[in-house]
Write a structure and sequence with these properties.
alpha+beta, 7 strands, disordered N terminus, DNA-binding, two-stranded antiparallel ribbon, globular, 277 residues, 12% strand
Amino acid sequence: MKRDIGCKGIRLTSRRVLDIVKTFECGQCFRWNADERGVYTGVVKGCAASVWTEGDDVMISASEKARLGFWRDYFDLDCDYESLRRNITQNEYLNLCAEYGGGIRILRQDGWEALCSFIVSQCNNIPRIKKIIETFCNLFGDTIEHDGKLLYTFPDARRVSALSPDDLAPLRCGYRAPYITGAAKAVSSGELDLDLLAHGGYENALRSLRAISGIGDKVANCVILYGLHMMEAFPVDVWMRRAIKENLSEGFDPKALGECAGLCQQYIFYYARSNRS
DNA sequence: AAACAGGCCTAAA
DNA sequence: TTTAGGCCTGTT
């Protein structure tokens, strides 16, 4: 019912700054789900929220536990995307992608969740990725209540490190199961310190992540971009490879995009996926 | 039925 | 350093 939502929400930002449908559906995250009214509900770092659009405003209803600043950070609202976008307008194709993807935010997700999620994503499709992660949370996460409903947190690395690949059989994630438990052991033991990596530079993060079994160049770049919040990361999958080949010059180098690379990648990816045949 | 899906690992040149 | 084949599973 609409009235419930109307009274409890507070304004997060404008719809021009944050397009929730594009942001949640552009493939960077897997745990936000819309109801029939278009209200998205998700759990971030143990905190639940519902987000929706009302006229020109984006509204949010979250528990007391997480202040508004927490969600502003998650949606990267302190970063000026307009100035980032100016860096790519000189190329006609990139400009088209940027126009099409206007309102997309690169979410500042939890590093461990991003790590697991993109391990699961390899050679997989989005509905199945979402299902595997949902089962993962339902089985091994903690329960929290939000808006009268029971939700699940993403299981932390310590919890998962105590599991065997066989324990993950209900996920039906196949050969990825040992990758997940192995990564959990690396993170919970401190061998892989994601907080440290977030401040230690792109190249260092890439090297450290790739040392983990099951993490190659593509997954590592996704973790760096979505989980460690380094905008120079530029994940290239089969969609990106094709889009680049068909639309950009042979000498295209994402490094030239600098701090805009990650956002630019998201625009290209979203445009390619949205206009597939 | 057989191929493919938002890769990665290993073995082999 | 690059390339082929295999891999869990679900869908087409």
